[in-house]
Amino acid sequence: MKALHIAATGMKAQELNVEVISNNVANMRTTGYKRQRADFQDLLYENQRRMGTETSDAGTIVPNGVQIGSGVRTVATTRIMSAGPVTQTGNEYDVSIRGEGFFQIERPDGTTGYTRDGSFARSQTGELVTKDGYRVQPGITLPDNARDVTINAEGLVQAMDDNEQILNLGQLEIARFTNKAGLEAIGDNLFLETPASGPAQVNNPASAGYGDILQLHLEASNVDAVNELTDLISAQRAYEMNSKIIKAADEMYSTTTNLR
């Protein structure tokens, strides 16, 4: 009886589904987090009577046939890259992207990571860095006498010096991807470029096809608590139904074993 094995694949799939949902819920308050969704595919089929085969010399054919599936598998955990709500923080180093694009971050190994988390800070050397101390690219250095830092919609970073003179400190750039769902998440709110995402296309904010910058604001997670709870209940019910199938198959085995 194949029902045991088929139902077992269903339980494993829903177990992974719950793990994905739990990670989404755990990151409800993570700045710039993008929720994931588990996607499934059916497995191979056994053809006990193939549709389209001839059943007589007159050319009559089987209209439907008999196929028995072998269960389900997880084919992807798709990242939903929709924008999250923007919240005001009042911190002059907090910035969010309204529209398409990612901030570029220089990792300790010299490679570039990409993030929607614009909660930046000023390092001991005056550089604009992430909360982990990774440099924002291209490098922006704030002099000791810089105050009232402003970052406009086009990513231009300016400040005032002690003589009330405007200092032009640099230009933020953002990157976009043909398939942003193909980016690889590595933790620390960072993504890496992959062959699936395509190469990074870098430009100034507010350019055609790119989002602009909003200072004093951060992009929150795009996780919706109600949707996640609904998905969790659906996954739980699907898990229960598959477990009942296993129980029913076991009882059928028992009945067959006890035949006299």
Automatic annotation (TrEMBL):
**UniProt lineage:** Bacteria, Pseudomonadati, Pseudomonadota, Alphaproteobacteria, Hyphomicrobiales
Key word Cytoplasm present: no
According to its record, what are the GO cellular component terms? bacterial-type flagellum basal body, distal rod
What PROSITE patterns does UniProt report for this protein, alphabetically? FLAGELLA_BB_ROD
Where is the protein situated, by its record's location annotation?
Bacterial flagellum basal body
Protein name listed in UniProt: Flagellar basal-body rod protein FlgG
* SUBUNIT field: The basal body constitutes a major portion of the flagellar organelle and consists of four rings (L,P,S, and M) mounted on a central rod. The rod consists of about 26 subunits of FlgG in the distal portion, and FlgB, FlgC and FlgF are thought to build up the proximal portion of the rod with about 6 subunits each.
Superkingdom to which the source organism belongs: Bacteria
Q: Where is the Flagellar hook protein FlgE/F/G-like D1 domain?
A: 97-159
Q: Which family does it belong to?
A: Belongs to the flagella basal body rod proteins family.
Q: What is the name of the gene encoding this protein?
A: flgG_2
List each copy of the Flagellar basal-body/hook protein C-terminal domain by range.
217-259
Instruction: Identify one Pfam family in the record.
Output: Flg_bbr_C
UniProt domain Flagellar basal body rod protein N-terminal: residue ranges? 5-34
- Can you supply a Gene Ontology BP term from the record? bacterial-type flagellum-dependent swarming motility
